[in-house]
Amino acid sequence: MPIYAYKCESCGFAKDVLQKMSDAPLDTCPNCSQPTFKKQLTAAGFQLKGSGWYATDFKGAGTAPATAVAPSDGGAATTAAATEPAAPKADAAPASGPAPAASGS
Question: Across the chain, what does the average pLDDT equal?
Answer without folding.
Answer: 72
